[in-house]
Each structure stands twice: as C-alpha cells, then as structure tokens.
Write a structure and sequence with these properties.
The protein contains 2 helices and 8 strands, in the order ααββββββββ. The protein has 211 residues and is of the alpha+beta class. The protein has a domain of 104 residues: Immunoglobulins (Immunoglobulin-like, Sandwich). The strands form 2 sheets. Strands 2-8-7-4-5 form a 5-stranded mixed β-sheet, with no helix packed on it. A 3-stranded antiparallel β-sheet has the order 1-3-6, with no helix packed on it. About 3% of the residues have low confidence.
Length: 211
C-alpha cells in the first residue's frame, strides 16, 4: 500500500471516531435544577398506586349489622279500685190491720233470720227466728198454743216448741227454733206451723243451701 492510501485510511478512521463521540454541552446552556420534593412526590404516588391495587384485589369486608333489641313495653300498674258497699236496710213490712183478713186465727210474718236461700256450711248449728204479728181476731193462749215441724227436711234439733206467752190481737212475738245443717251439700227446705188445739195456721217456711 502506498503512503497516500495509508494516510487516507487514517483520516477516515479518525473522522468516524470523532463522529461517535457525543458533543459536549454548551457552556452557555443552564444546568437543570434539582426538585427537592420530587422524591417525596414519587413516594406518595407509589403508595397511592399500591393502596389502589390492594383495594382492588382485597376480599370484601363484611359490615356487621346491629340488630335492634326488642323495646320493652312498660306494663301499666293497675290502680286499686275501691268499691264501697253500703248496707241495704231491710224495711219490715207494714203490719196489716187486725181482722183485715176476716179470720179468727191469722198471722203476718214481719221478719225472718236467716232469709230463704242463705248459703251455709255442712254440719253446723244455727238458729232460726221468725218475727210474727197476730193479725187475727182471737188471742193465742200460751197454755194451748205451740209451733211445730210439719213437713220437709228434718233440720230441727227438737220438733215442737210451746208458746211462751199469750199473744193478743195486734201484738208481735219472736218464734225461735234451733236447727242443724245436713252433712251433705244441697238445697234443703223445712215447713213449720202454729197450732192451737188441732187447727194449724201461719206457715213458717225456710230454705237453705248447704255448700
């Protein structure tokens, strides 16, 4: 190879090498400034991206629902009710005029204790009282007058009683009989009469309920 050709190849190689070397920056161009917040901004953006990705793939969270408890209904306190029971006065019947019935022997029952339909216990002693008036025209003589059991249930302790005193027309007297309730429950009735000689009058009837 001639000397001229060698020189030409060297110049060509040098030119290619210079073409590959990067050009140096112009000294007049300003240098880039460094942003101090750039690393923090990058960290925040990275954290937000990771949080968004975690939220996307995270399993659903179950939110507990509070079941309302049963509300207790206040119970009304009953107010006491006071019932005042006033005793009912039993007004005895007005005594009829003597002889108004036109009979010689006649009575009017003014009161009876216990009243008919009274509820009593089993096997107890009790006393029956009849208050009666002589509304006939004849006197009831004590030596010839009694009151006795006639029919019905035998509740008596004794079946016959003598009249204690004379009872003239218009007077009243109380007849008392000792009795005893039966041992079994039920309704019982008994009938008594005033008897003068062989004549019976003035029905005295009693009905009780044994429970």
């Amino acid at each position: 190879m001639s000397k001229n050709k060698k020189t030409t190849y060297l110049l060509l190689i040098l030119f290619l090498m210079l073409a590959c070397v990067p050009s140096l920056p112009n000294s007049s161009s300003p240098l880039p400034t460094f942003d101090a917040n750039a690393p923090l901004t990058a960290i925040v953006e990275t954290f937000n991206a990771a949080a968004a990705q975690t939220q996307t793939f995270a399993p659903p969270t179950w939110t507990s629902t509070v079941t309302p408890t049963r509300t207790s209904i206040p119970t009304e306190t009953p107010s006491p009710t006071f019932v005042f029971l006033l005793p009912t006065a039993t007004i005895p019947p007005t005594q009829i005029p003597v002889g108004s019935s036109g009979k010689d022997l006649e009575c009017q029952i003014l009161a009876q204790d216990p009243p008919n339909g009274s509820l009593m216990q089993k096997s107890v002693d009790f006393v029956v009282r009849w208050t009666i008036a002589n509304v006939g025209t004849h006197t009831w003589p004590s030596d010839n007058t009694d009151y006795r059991y006639i029919s019905g249930d035998k509740l008596y302790v004794q079946p016959i009683y003598d009249l204690e005193r004379n009872v003239v027309a218009g007077e009243t007297i109380e007849l008392i009989v000792n009795m005893q309730t039966p041992a079994n429950v039920g309704t019982y009735s008994t009938s008594w009469r005033i008897v003068i000689s062989k004549e019976q009058f003035c029905p005295l009837d009693l009905t009780i309920i044994v429970g």
